[in-house]
Each structure stands twice: as structure tokens, then as C-alpha cells.
Amino acid sequence: MPVALVGFADPVLDAQACFRAVLDAMARPGSIHQVGGTLVAPASLCPAAAAVVLALVDGETSIFIDPAFADAADWVRFHCGVAPTPDASVAAFVLAPDLPDLRSLSCGSDEGPEDSATVIVQVAALGEGAVYTMMGPGLQYPRTFRATGLPVDFVARWAENHKLFPRGIDLILCAGDRLAALPRSLSITGG
Amino acid sequence: MAYVAVKGGERAIDNAHAWLAEERRGDLGISAIGLAQITEQLGRSVDRVMAEGSVYDTDLAALAIKQSQGDLIEAAFLLRAYRTTLPRFAIAEPVDTANMLIRRRISAVYKDLPGGQILGPTYDYTHRLLDFALAAGTVPPPAAEAIAPEAAMPRVADILGQEGLIEAHTDDGREPGDLTREPLRFPATRDVRLQALARGDEGFLLAMGYSTQRGYGGSHPFVGELRVGDCNIEITPPEIGFAIDIGDVMLTECALVNQFAGSKTVPPQFTSGYGLTFGHAERKAMGMALVDRAMRAEELGEDANAPAQNIEFMLYHSDNIEATGFVEHLKLPHYVDFQSELETIRRMRAETGQ
Amino acid sequence: MNEILQGYNFAYLDEQTKRMLRRALLKAVAIPGHQIPFGSREMPLPYGWGTGGIQVTAAVLGPNDVLKVIDQGADDTTNAVSIRRFFAKTAGVATTTDTATATIIQTRHRIPEFPLSENQILVYQVPQPEPLSKLEPSRGETRRMHALAEYGSMHVRLYEDITRFGHVAISYDYPVMVGGRYLMAPSPIPAFDNPKLHMMPALQLFGAGREKRIYAIPPYTNVRSLDFDDHPFCAGRAPHPCGLCGSETSYLDEVVVDNKGGRLFVCSDTDYCETRRAAGHVGADA
Questions:
Q1: How would DSSP label each residue in chain A?
Q2: Could A114 and C36 be called an inter-chain contact, meaning their C-beta atoms sit closer than 8 Å?
Q3: Contact C219/A15, CB-based, under 8 Å?
Q4: Do the Cβ atoms of B84 and C251 come within 8 Å?
């Protein structure tokens, strides 16, 4: 199938800008960054999620794409040079339309907690909606964070993930051309 | 007293590099050495630099040797740094050394064997007498030539394998690791170990191989076979679907035959240590094979107490680019740390009243 | 902006290598203080001379960044000059010696005296990322010790110093606990700099090229220098004011000025010293 959509307009500098946004998002949990604004993404993907995939995924890693994003699979295969894995439990990246069951994904080992999944979740909105309070590395004081589209039991599910630390899953939340990140080191209350 | 903080790092570097370039060129009354002279007349240096630099390109290796004033580790480093910038077009098919176009092939375990013993261009039986005729520029007479034998030259390991006397190696279908893309992890599998050794320092492999012969992890080696010659490199582009020949590389392969008493599950049989390196590099291939076998001690249920049998020790110290960088980095300024030590020692001396 | 060297990718590394580094960096930030193995590449500078820091900087750097490079606290030491030139040539980025205007600071052996801010990244060059290496040479074994947070041997080593000397005798690369979980080597900064690691507003990234490890301290992260309740961590400086700017608080270099025991003490952080002098501070030897 021909892939009609282009990737980054400037593959080097756009990837760098997107990575820096994700790095800062991960280092300052809850901070919201704009990425991928000019990117024409496959219909089901928001520009931010598409940009994160382009910036971080290639043939030397692995990605699981939720069936809801089936229209993006060929685009990812073409631009990232990687065939998506059908097995989410071994994937380094998981691209999902809503929060997957984190227990079904790779959370790394005691010796290699970095061998764990980074989940790119598309949510309805960032900066509005349910209010969460977060504390952990990257935050001088407890900080509130708002998002629409996380499950109602998110705080409980996150607590289970956080409890595994230093193992665990890291989240990148994307909505439109905005993203925020929640590293496993974070404790979250509220919701 | 007026003191001005030291400035001039920029100018010092520029001046140092200019001096280095002048020294490298040497006396302008003597003609500059050409890359073709290096590839043609210093072939063993070129081979070593290609092996340790992990790039098979005689012209680039010659340039690196010229640029480094013949410092072969520095030359290998130049190739390694260049290698980092090269894109990967394809991954080659495994090289078949049984089909090598042989220049030299000897076996120490058989008096004669199919294909025969071929001494080839070796220093082995030269008398090490400085050749003043060479200094005078005497042109050697042409060497005798013969038609290459048609007979196949099976590898000694395959001959022993027909009788089941040597351990069998079968393809487990697993993709080999690649240290140039992935960091070393333990336990390191044999493919990764061999890759590290093939890039490893010749002197290190020589010394560590030697140590196994002197009793630090010995395994009674015989040179089953040592062969030197050219092998085809083939790639299979996905859009074509079959292998195509993209050129030849000269390789040296050493297959040791080592004693093994057998274990609960394996009958007594010979085992092997294996060495393979770019170019004509017998010392390196043999050192590599000795060390490879020593590193298999644990796998074969032998005691593993000698340095050459310690896989982590061997793999972390075989790379001369890493080693030279870290040893030589001691030349960098360390005066901040030294100052902190000075203060600590002064404080401790003051406390003890000395 | 500087002119970019032709024939090489922006910031030297190819994009696939940068992605590998970037993936490792994100995990490093998510697991503060934990060493992430990465596929370190051969750089055109030798191992041990900053290849880890250079790879981290190359992965992070963008065209709008302003880069400062220091070695021993100084911008003009030869290796700092060499690395700054490397990025000016391969990325064309603006460079500076001014700590406040830099967005990325690559350092060897020092943390700047001026506090860093939230929009800065500090990249450390790390020769030996394994804090346990002097106690246990096998990396297979130290990896296991980190997995189990089994750090008793380090406490024993510090306690032996105390019983022998009355205090801990480690003066640089003084081990720290990050986020209460991982023992971490802060790189060979003087112990004097250790308190700056704690709750720093800037993101701190550590690259060890030869040892092929990356690790990080996110902003505002708890970093504690190992100590005991009855022997709290303390690190000093030479007991002198800076001869040039008169600072009583900065870390000092000791300069030998003659053969008769003459010494001059000056700030190791050259930008700090120059900024103070420009503001009118004068030391006794200026």
C-alpha cells in the first residue's frame, strides 16, 4: 500500500524539537508541550502522538499499535522502518487510544528496569478535565495536572504501577498537538 | 603581585596541530610517502589497522597510517571514528571460509590432507637477519608460480567432524549480536565474544593467549588449521531476493583443536577455539582462537579461574581504542580533583599534628 | 551561529544513533540515578575525553541552543575548547562562556558556582559511572547489587574511613543516593559540589561513553551524599578568599607561583570569577 502522507518536514530538526519536548515533559511531570503542529498524521492519530512515534521509533526498537490505529500501521512501517509487533507484552512502545492494562505490558526487570514499555496514549484533552495531584522527582512541590480521557480508576491503576518502582511503565499523554508525560517515579492522587 | 588567569587554550591547540602536521611531513627534501606505497609495501600494518578499526578498506587504512605517523592504534581509532558516520546498506551473508581462495593453508595435526599443505608467503622460516640488500633497494627475483590445484580444500574441522570426533556447531537460527549497536551484556554469547575479539588488540590477544599456554587456563591446543586467502562477500537485497557478490576480503582463519575429556552428557571429543580476522594476521587469529577456547571453560564444565577464562575481564579489556583513550585521558587536567585531595591530606595531617 | 561542517549530519551523529540515545535518556529520567546501558559509538575524540557527554549533548542539542563547555570549571581549558569547537563545527550552534545565557552546559569535574535554572540542562562527562567499581570490579555483580539496592559494602567502606581518619576520606566523586533508591557516582566533581546536585532546578544528564552508560537526575530530585547521623557529610574548600575576585565561597584552584612555596588561590569557575570582577569585586592579588 503506498504511503501518501509525509513524515517530518525536517526529519533532523523536527525530531530534535519533539524529543526535547518529551524530555522536558518527562523531567517535569505534568508540564504541557506543543509538538507536531505542522505534521499531517494518519487520520486516527493526533499530531502529537504521530510526532512522538516519528521521533523515537525505528527498526532498533519495537512498537505495538492498537487495532484502533490500524490506519497508521503502514505509515509507521514506512517512516520508522519497523514492522509493528502483534504482541504488546514485549513492545518497547505501545500506541493506544486509551489507557491499556498496564499489567499486561513489559515493566522491565530488577536489573534492567529500563527494559519497560513507554505507552503513548491519546487522550481527549490536556490541561482541562479531571484534576490529579502529583509528587515525585521533577517536582519541587506537589503539582496539579488536568486531563480528560483517562479511565475513572486511573489513580488506582497508576498506584499499582508506581508500586513496582524502579520497574514500571512510563506514559506519554497526547491530545491534538499537545503532550505531557508521567514517569513511573510519580505518585498520583485525586482524579 | 598581579596575576592573570591562564588564557590561550584556543591558540595552544591551533599551534600544536600545526607543529604536528609539520613533524608528520618531516624533511621536505625527502619525498612524501604515497598511500599506494603503504598499501603495497606495509600490508601487514594495513591489515592490522583494518581489523582493529573494523573497516575493510585498504586505501582508508593507508591514509590512517600516514595520518597517524605509523601509530597503528591511532590509525585504527581514525577508522573507527569514520565508521560511526557510515550508513548501513545491508548485512552480508555469512562468509564461507571453506571456499576461500587460498594463499596459505597449513595444518599441524595432519602430515598431509586433501588440498595439501600450502606454505604461502610466510615469515615462519625466514632467518631474522636484517636484509641490507633490501635497504639498498634491491628488487627481488620473481617467485615461482604454479597452477592452483583444482582439488577442494576442506576445513580440518569438517574432516574431524565427519567422524564425530570434534564438537558440532549448528546454526541455531538466532541473529548474531552486534557490539557496534548494542552495549555488552552478560552473559555474553559466543558470537558477541568473537566479534569483540576480532576487533580486539593484537597485543592483548597475544599476551592472553600466551598466558593460557603457560598454565593460566590452558586447554592443550593444536593448530587444526590456519588458512589465509580471499573470500567472497555476498549480500541479498530484499528487492532482488537472491545473493549477489559485492567483492572480496582477505581473511585469516585459525581453528584450534583442543582436548576435552567429555562430561555426563557429552562423550569425549575434541573441542575448538576459533579465530577469524581481516587481512593476513596469523598472530592475531591464533591469539583469538586460544582466548576464545579459554573463555568457553565454564560452558564446557571446566574450572574457570584464570584471567583468560574470565569473560567479563577479557571483553572489557580487549579493545585498544577504549583502553588507549582511558589510559591517555590521565593527561587531561585533573587539578580540581587533585585540589580536593590536597585539602583532604592537609586536613588529615593537621588533625594528627604532623 | 557558526558555519556547519559539510558532509556530516547535524551534531555529527546519524539520526538512528540519536534516537537510540534519546530513548535511553528518557528511561534515565524516568528512573533517576539508574545506569542505562546504551550503544555508545566511536566518536572522533578519544574514549575518556568526554565521548559520553558529547553523545548526550549531540542527542539533546538543537539549533536554538546556546552551548557552554567547561573542564575543571574553566571555559578555556584545552579539552573544553576542543569540545566546544566540535559542536560549533558540526551543529553550528551558538556557544558562550556565560553560565546564565547557556541552555546546555557540558562539564567535566565541576558544577558551576552560579545556581542553574529550570531552562538549563547540565551534561556531565563521566569516566566511571559505577559507584561500586572500586569495591566490586565485576559489572555483572554490581548490576545485581543495584537491583537489590545492596549498598552495605559502600557504607562499610565509608565507616572504615571514619574509624581510621575520623571522617570520610573521599574528596571527589563522592557517592550519592538519588531519590532514596540508587547509589550513583556524581562523576569526579569535588565533594564541595555535591550539595548542588540536590533539588537542582536544571535537568542533569550523565554520559559515560567508554563504559556505555547513561543516567540522569531530574530537576528537583532528592540527592543525598552518603553519610552517618553522627558523621554528617561535610566538604570543604581551600580556606582562602579568591585572589582575583575575593570570593569566600567559591571552589578554588591552587596555583604555584614560585619555587619558594608561593601559592595563589583563584576561583576554579572562570565565568563566576570574571562576572564578579566585572561587578567590581577585587581580590588581594588582582
A1: ----S---SSHHHHHHHHHHHHHHHHHSTT--EE--TT----TTS-HHHHHHHHHH--TTS-EEE-GGGGGGHHHHHHHH--PPPS-GGG-SEEEESS---GGGS-B--SS-TTSB-EEEEE-SEEEEEEEEEEESTT-SS-EEEEEESS-TTHHHHHHHHHHTTTS--EEEEEETTEEEEE-TT-EEEE-
A2: yes
A3: no
A4: no
Categorize the per-residue pLDDT at B175 as very low, low, confident or very high, splitting at 50, 70 and 90.
Answer: confident
Instruction: Provide the CATH number for the domain around residue A116.
Output: 3.40.50.11310
- What is the average pLDDT score of chain A? 95
Domain boundaries, chain B: 31-87, 97-121+152-168+181-326
- Is the pLDDT score of C2 beyond 70? no
Identify all chain A residues contacting C63, using CB atoms and an 8 Å cutoff.
13
Per-residue pLDDT band at B348 (split at 50, 70, 90): confident
| Residue B70, min C-alpha distance to chain C (Å) | 18
Considering only CB atoms, C32 lies closest to which of A17, A110, A185, namely: A185
Distance (Å) from the C-alpha of residue A4 to the closest C-alpha of chain C? Answer: 23
Whether residue A37 has pLDDT greater than 90: no
CATH number of this structure's domain C15-136+140-225, picked from the four choices 2.60.40, 3.40.50, 1.20.144, 3.60.60? 3.40.50
Q: Do B316 and C139 touch (CB under 8 A)?
A: yes
Flag whether pLDDT at B170 surpasses 50: yes
Averaged pLDDT of chain C: 95
Query: Comparing C210 with B173, which gets the higher pLDDT?
Result: C210
